[in-house]
Amino acid sequence: MADDAASSSTCTGNLVDNSINQDELIMKQQREIEKEISESIPLVGEIEPLSSLEKEYNEDPIYLLKVKDLSAKYKHIRRTRPDVYGSCLKSW
């Protein structure tokens, strides 16, 4: 029984150190990833002609109709940095 209690802080094949807060390690890794992304991808990109969307989605007729509608009002676009978490609707 004492051996069972002593082994409760280990996983099969992997040692788990209970003195390290796993949540803190995860949050630290998340901050490092966010920093790397923010340093390599601008929050708001350069001005591009709206025609760049036509070239990008030339095989999607529905999207091309939307681009045509946008071109009646706008000449340019600016792309934004993708969402780091995979869901821009996620609320913190």
From TrEMBL:
This is Uncharacterized protein. It comes from Leptidea sinapis.
